Amino acid sequence: MVVESFGAKDTFALGEKIGKSAKAGQVYSLVGDLGVGKTVFTQGVAAGLGIAEPVNSPTFTILQIYEEGRLPFYHFDVYRIGDVEEMEEIGYEEFFFGEGVCLVEWADLIREILPPSYIEVKIEKDPERGFDYRRITLAEV
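^ thats the sequence. predicted structure below, dont judge the formating
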């Protein structure tokens, strides 16, 4: 499925829609360049799950856990991961195969440890369509 976003509000709304329909055990891989709206999308997912606290990218902590919504929300940002062993030290399997919803920013960096089935969310800019335009592709892998 391909969705066009014409600004942060659209990107947030798509994330919120996904959060509202997310099920326990789902893993979302989030792929896109710096500044494409990965965090805005993630904030929408959190809102859809009923999480009211601020959601920011956990770039330096790698994992942020939110438990106040209808399902636990595990938000990874693996941009600074040096290798897969760091994910093993965090105990990623507990979250990837847990009772909550897992979203992994920069998931292409750890593709080899993603579960056999996940939903890839790819966010891309298209400068010809405008500064705020994004093409968001969702695909089951």
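The longest strand covers residues 119-125.
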